[in-house]
Specification:
Layout lengths: L21 E9 L9 E10 L2 E11 L8 H7 L3 H4 L5 H12 L3 E4 L2 H14 L9 E3 H8 L8 H7 L10 H21 L5 H8 L3 H9 L12 H4 L12 H4 L2 H4 L6 E2 L5 H11 L3 E4 L9 E4 H11 L18 E3 L4 H11 L3 E5 L5 E6 H7 L10 H4 L3 H20 L4 H29 L9 E5 L1 H5 L10 E5 L13 H15 L17 E3 H13 L3 H10 L3 E5 L1 H20 L2 H12 L18 E3 L1 H19 L6 H11 L5 H27 L6 E3 L5 H12 L3 H9 L4
Function: DNA polymerase III is a complex, multichain enzyme responsible for most of the replicative synthesis in bacteria. The epsilon subunit contain the editing function and is a proofreading 3'-5' exonuclease.
Keywords: CBS domain
Organism: Stappia indica
Length: about 725
Amino acid sequence: MSPASREGNGHRAGATPLIALDVVVLDTETTGLDIRKDRIVQIGAVRMEGVEVHPELSFRQLVDPGLAIPEVARRIHGLGDEDVKGQPDFAEIGPKLMEFIGDAVVVGHSIHFDLAVLRHEADRHGIAWREPRSLDVALLVAGLNRAMIDTSLDNLALGYGIPVEGRHTAFGDAVTTARVYSALIPQLLAKDIRTLAEAENLSRKPAGLIARQEEAGWFERPSERPDFSRAVMRSGSQRAIDSFLYRHRLGDVMNSPPICISPEASLHAAAQLMADRGIGCLIVEPSHEDGEPGIVTERDVLHALAREGAGASIVPVGKVMSAPVISAPDDTFLYRALGLMARRNLRYIGVTDGAGRLAGVFTLRTLLRKRALATLTVGDEIATAARPRDLARVQAALPSLAAGLLADGQDARQVAAIIAAEARAMTGRAAELAEAELVAAGRGPAPADYALLVLGSGGRGESLLAPDQDNALVIADDYTGDLDDPDDWFTRFAARINEILDRAGIPYCKGGVMAKNRPWRRRLGEWLDQARDWAGHPSPQALLSVDIFYDFTPAHVSGSGGSRLAGQLRREAGEIARGSLSMLRALGAAAGSHAPPLGLFGRIKKDDTGRVDLKAGGLLPIVSGARAIALRHGVASLSTPQRLRQAAEKAGRSQADADLLADIHGFLMRLILTQQIADLEAGVPPTNRVRLDALNHRDQDELREALGRIDLITHMLQDLLQGL
């Protein structure tokens, strides 16, 4: 199976970021170079996690080849018959090696030679060999630098300044190769080679080197790569997913309003109230005006009885309650809420409304009444992530999750909302890690209130699988530090957030829309001044900034002060936009200027690769138009369908066109998501361009009709922006 055609039959998804890969770097010493006849005399392997080499996690073994070691081979690796005498043969070693490799990706120098020898040894000894996914550092280097002639391990180690120890011993060469691979990863990332599949694609480029390896018989017979975009829709191609947990939010299933009790009430009264209502917890009212509510559960009552005996019945609730109530917003997806509950060992959590008030209670009992629990694909890994690699694992799981949900019939807009929710959570966790690092470095906690904002599609909850960073920082006006100083607390904080996200597989924004850049790191007053400048001078560049800024949502805030900052920015910036007739006209004109990719007789226009851009002439006019209408009518919703429908309602217009555009929006997102899943698995960087020949006839017909109705947004803009 050559690198030009291998299917990737390991257990690692092609979309897994390189820094999140579990890797085994492997090398063998043999009796010769004939993969069919020669035998293994030594195996060395070492584990890696991302760029970290772990020599203590190793596999080192001499092997009795069952035949005499030729003198020419002994001169290279120094092993003779006396060295391997009494050592186990491959029949004993093979299964242990496979167990050591597990599901890891195997990396090596000219690794396909080693794998070919292992494959033949396994066949010779009747062992069922499972071909792992693999990367060859020689092919990777040759793919990066076509002019490089000498890709030997000695030359690569010299080029990277890596000392060579134990050359031509299996373990020594494995460790040297591991260090070369570790040094190579930053170069791959710099060339936007971020995932396993993208690295595999790079390895296919050195055609001459591959041809020589194929001629030597290092690869199995090539097999055709399956069309993943179709395979993903087949039942059983993905893990079973309980889509209920990804379709519903806490607000859909919470018990509301919460049943409350006074802190002075007795435990007997609390137990009686819980029994009468058939519930397992009560919210305890604050004992004073500025206090926070607490919670008392049936378990608290049992523990009190165990401690106090019969006297527990008169104990005040306030003495046994827990406070504050651990809560989550009502728009939190159920799968994330369950992850939080599992991590904190909770049976009940509070549910807060948009203003932060306790609006209800969510319990496992409630969920079980509505839906039986199923295996979660994504749980609460983000909250426990301690480094970028941990976040990268979550990022790597998103394509598989999206594919499974689409295969389950889930609406693409809901899938996009889940992807966006994970991206926001990762951004928030990156902020927590960055702040913790600053504290550990002696810089202290945040010197002022702040809110970290996610912008663009992430803020709207409409993220697809081609991520980049669109974020900003709003800081309290009373902060007196110099935000232009590289050593400023917030400057360092923002830079580290963006660095963590980039290493986790969410690359830097090519347009520079990131908090580490000064234009996207401002005090509240500066942001409002900027909004006024955009409103007064709506240049094309200003409109690009407006398009991404006004979709912001907080990903992380410094307590209640940070929440107030974000809320104030939302209100006041919205009022500035609504009062700027010139900017609203310009936004409407820009949104209506994007023509759908249709040619004569309604034919869909394709580029030279047979793809069609469904963002430029499809999603973009709908999303941009909905934003302009929402700003005009003061619609607070961020999602495109809600903006369309709420603006039409506020303006007293028919909902028919809004509903149709919302449906087109969802349809286009489904086509793009499906293509992105296929591209990620194939090692092709995901974009908004869809292969037309990959669509079935029904989807092609629907696409043609949908693109033909995009001009509805122009009519809506004219209608709902009238009078400007």
